[in-house]
Amino acid sequence: MAEPTTTEFALEVRNLSRTFGARKALDGVSFDLPTGAFLSIFGPNGAGKTTLLKVLSTLTTPSKGTASVLGLDVVEDAVALRERIGFISHNPLLYPDLTAEENLEFFADLYCIDNPNVRVKELLTAVELNHRKLDAVRTFSRGMIQRLSIARALLHDPDVIFLDEPYSGLDPHAMDILDSLIASVRADHTFVMISHDLQKGLELCSHALILAKGKIVLFEEREEIDPNAFAATYRATVGLGVS
Amino acid sequence: MAEKKQSIHISGMRQFKAILKKDIVMELRTKEMLTSMGLYALLVLVIYYVALSQAGSGFDVTRIAGGLLWLAIVFTSLLGLNRSLVHEKDQGCLDALLLAPVDRPVIFFGKAMGNLLFLVIVEVLVTPLFMLIFNAGKYAGIATAGWLAIVLLVGSIGIAGVGTLLATMSVNTTGKDFVLAVLFIPVMFPLLLATVAATSAILTQHPDMAVYWKMVGVSGAYDAIMLSAAFALYEFVLGA
Amino acid sequence: MKQIRIALWMAIVGGVMTTVAFLMAFFTSEVQLFGTVTLPKQITTAFPLLSGDAASGFMYGRPWFSQKIFYFHVPFAEASFLVFTVAAYFAIRFLMTRKKEYDTKTRVAMEVALVFVILTLISGDLWTKASWGVWWEWEPRLTTYFIMTLLMVAYFVLRNSLEDEERRAIYSAVFGIIAWIDAPISFFITRLIPSDHPIVFKSGMATSNLVPFIVAQVGMLLIGYAVYVVRLREERMRERLEVIKESLEG
Q1: Which of B128, B187, C131, C215 has the highest count of CB atoms within 10 angstroms of its CB?
Q2: pTM for the whole thing?
Q3: Are B237 and C166 in contact (CB under 8 A)?
Q4: Who contacts A180 (Cβ-Cβ below 8 Å, separation ≥6)?
Q5: Distance, CA of C85 to CA of C100 (rounded, Å)
Q6: Alpha carbon distance B72, B122 (integer Å)
C-alpha cells in the first residue's frame, strides 16, 4: 500500500462530505486534480476550505465519500500518505523556544530521515537561514519564520504541498521571498493552496476552485478562466457567505 | 527519487526520543516549567507552615505529612501539565506532529514521559525539603526513603499519564488551567487516597508495611486501568 | 409524538409508584433493626445506644427514621449509576459513529444522572444525620457519590468551555468514559483505605420492606426515563430550530 504510486491524478475526491449533525462543512465535493498542478481554493469564511485541506492532509476524516492523494486513501493509507505531503500554514508550526536547527532536526527525526544533519543544512542554506541556525525561532521576523516553516515542510521531500493562506501577515518583501521559494520547487510538486487573495491565487494556479457552503461552485483550469467573470463569480459567492 | 522514498522507514522509538528530547531541550533553555513548578511548591510549603503554625507542640505532623506532600504534588503537577501542552498548542505545533507519519500512541507516550520526568525532578527537589522543614521524617529510617521513592513514582505515573490526556483537552478550552483542575482532581481522587494512605503508613511512628504494600498495589492497579483508558482514548482527542 | 405520550404515562405511573412506596414505607413496612453502627465518639441522637465504651467505640441501633430514607436513598443511588452507565454507553457509541444524536443522548443522560446523584447525596446526607447524628461523614458510598457529582459537574464545565461543536462532543465523550471508569475505582479505594470511619453492617430485609423498596426503585426509574425522553425531545427540537434559523439567514 505504502509503495510510491505515480498516478495521473494527484488528488481524487469523490462525493466527499464532512458533516456534524445538521452542519455540513463539506457537502458532496468531487474533483480530480492532475499531478503537478497548482490548485487555488477560494471561498468565503466557513465555506469548507480549511476542512477540505484538513481531510486531504489526514488531519481529519471524511464523514462520507472518499479522497485519495497520490493514489493513497486519506483514511486507509493515512500513515503512508503523511510521508509524502508537506503543509505550510499561516501558523508557523514551529517551536519558538528551539533554534532553527533544532526545529528542523526534530522534524527530521519525526519523519525518520536518513542523514538528518546533511538534509537540515541543505534546507537551511536553501532558505538562506544558515547564518541564524543557532538562534531561537522566537527572535525571528515574520518572514524568516515563514521561510523556516517552508524548510520544515520540504524536509522529507514531499510530493504534494498544502498551503493554508501562506501569504497572510507577510510584508511585501517576505511575499517576494515566498514567491521565489514556491517557484523554485514548483516544477516537481503538486500544490493545493487556500487563498483569500484573488489576484495572488489566480497568478500562481493552474486550476481554481471556488467553494461555498461546502459545495463546489466552480472548478476550472486556469486557461479557461476569464479573470473578470471569475472575479464576479467569486464576489457573488463571498456575498453569499455566512457572515 | 523513488529509491529515496523507500529508504524512509518509520521508527517509533526514534520519534518517541525526538519528542522527549525536544521537551527536555526546550526546558533546559527556558527553565520555565521547573522554575514555576519548584517555586509554586515552595509557596505551598510556606502556606503549610502558616496552616500548622497554631497546631501546638503536641501535634504529630507525621500523621498528616503524607497528605500534605501529595497535596503539594497535585497542585504543582497541574501547573506543569498545563504548560507542557500549551507549548504544543501555541504555534499549532500539535498539528505539525499530527501531520508527520507518527503513530498517535507515540505522541501520547512521548508527552506523558516528558511530564513524568519533570514531575519527578520537582519531587526529588521538594520532598527532602518538605521532610526537613516539617520534620516529617522523624520516625523514618534509611529504608523509608526507598519506600517513599516507590510510592512517589507509582503516583506520578498515574498523574502524568491521565494528566496528559486531560491537559490535551483542557488547552483547547476557553478556561485552560481552571478546566484542567476541575477535570483532574476528581479523576485523581482515588489514586491520591491510595498514595496518601501508603505514604502515611511509612511515615508514622509505627510503620505498617502490610498497609503500605496493599496501597501501593492499589495505586498500581489504578495506574494500569486509567492509563489503558487514557491510552485508548488519546487518539480520539488528537483527532478532534 | 407517541414517544412523548409514553413518557407522560411513565411519569404518571412512576409518580404514583413512588408515592405508594413512600406511604408503604411509613404504614406497611415493619420497623426493623438493620444492624448496628459503631462510631468512634459518643454522639447525641434520639436513638438507642446499645453498648460500648470509649475504647471499643459506641454502638448504636440503626434507627427507624433512617430506614424510611433508605427506601429512597438506595433507589436514587442505583438509578443514578444505571443512568451514568447509559451515558457512558452513548459516549462510546458516539466515538464509534461520530453521529451527533449520540452526543445529545450522552448529555441528556448525564443530566438525568446528575439529578439522581444530587438526590442521592441529599437523601444520604439526611440519612447520616438521622443515623449517626452528623451532617456529613466521609463514608465510602457517600464519598463516591460526592466525587461522582464533581465528575459530572466537570463534564458540563468541559462542555461549556468548548466552542467547536464537534470537538466539544468528542472531548466530553472521552471525559464521560474516563469519569465512568473512575467512579467504581473511587468506591473500591475509599473502602480499602485504612480509616476510622463507621462501616455499616448490612443484614437481610423482610418482605414487607422489600416491597416498598422495589416499588420505589421501579417508580424512580420510570420517572427518570420519562425525564430523559422529554429532555431529549426538547433538545432535538432546539437543534432543528437552529437549523431552520441558519437556513433562513443564508
Answers
A1: B187
A2: 0.89
A3: no
A4: none
A5: 19
A6: 11
Q: Which value, to the nearest 10 degrees, does the dihedral of the CA atoms of residues A145, A165, A32, A29 take?
A: 130
Q: How far is CA A74 from CA A14, A52, A61, in A?
A: 12, 12, 8
For A147-184, letters b (16+ CB in 10 Å) and e give: bbbbbbbbbbbbbbbbbbbbbeebeeebbebbeebbee
Nearest 5 degrees, angle CA B62-CA B119-CA B202? 25
**Mean local confidence (pLDDT), A157-171:** 88
- The grid coordinates of residue A177 equal 521571498
Q: How many CB atoms lie within 10 A of CB A23?
A: 15
Could you tell me the CA-to-CA distances from A61 to A24, A32, A58, C59, C89 in Å, in that order? 14, 19, 7, 63, 23
At position A239, the amino acid (one-letter code) is G
Q: Dump pLDDT digits (tens) for B206-238.
A: 888 999 999 999 999 999 999 999 999 999 999
Q: In what order do the strands lie in the sheet with A160-164?
A: A85-89, A160-164, A190-194, A38-42, A207-212, A215-221
Residue A66 backbone dihedrals phi, psi, to 5 degrees: -135, 160
Cα Rg, chain B, nearest whole Å: 20
Contact A213 C250 (CB under 8 A): yes
The residue type at A201: G
> For the segment A43-68, what is each residue's pLDDT rounded down to a tens digit?
888 889 999 999 999 999 999 999 99
Contacting residues for B224 by C-beta, under 8 A, at least 6 apart: none
Helix (H, G, I), strand (E, B) or coil at B180: helix
pLDDT in tens, B27-71: 999 888 899 999 999 999 999 999 988 888 788 888 899 999 999
Contact A21 C239 (CB under 8 A): yes
Angle at A190 between CA A229 and CA B104, to 5 degrees: 120
Cβ-defined contact of A23 to C165 (cutoff 8 Å): yes
ipTM entry: 0.91
The C-alpha atoms of residue A220 and residue A205 are separated, in whole angstroms, by 10
| φ, ψ for residue A18, nearest 5 deg | -135, 105
Burial A28-43 (b: 16+ CB within 10 A, else e): ebebebebebbbbbbb
Q: Rounded CA gap, C79 and B157, in Å?
A: 34
What is the bridge-based pairing of β-strands C57-61 and C49-53? antiparallel
Min mean pLDDT across A239-243, C51-55, C116-120 is at: A239-243
> B126 and B75 in contact (C-beta within 8 Å)?
no
Strand partners, A211: A216
Q: What is the DSSP letter of A136?
A: B
Backbone angles phi, psi at A29, to 5 degrees: -90, 130
Each residue of C113-163: pLDDT tens digit?
999 999 999 888 887 777 666 778 777 778 889 999 999 999 999 999 999
Of B2, B19, B100, which is closest to A111 when you measure between CB atoms? Answer: B100
Q: Which residues make beta-bridge pairs with C57?
A: C53
| Distances B216 to A19, B221, C188, C194, C196 between C-alpha atoms, Å | 47, 9, 14, 13, 20
For an interface test with A, the pick among C95, C97, C100, C164 (most A C-beta atoms closer than 10 Å) comes out as C100
Q: What is the pLDDT of residues A62-100, one digit of tens each?
A: 999 999 999 999 999 998 999 999 999 888 899 999 999
- How far is the alpha carbon of C196 from chain B, nearest alpha carbon, in Å? 13
C-alpha B147/C-alpha B209 separation (Å) is: 10
- Cite the DSSP H helix spans in B91-175: 93-99, 104-134, 142-170
Show the cell assigned to B212. Answer: 503500605
CA distance C99 to chain A (A): 7
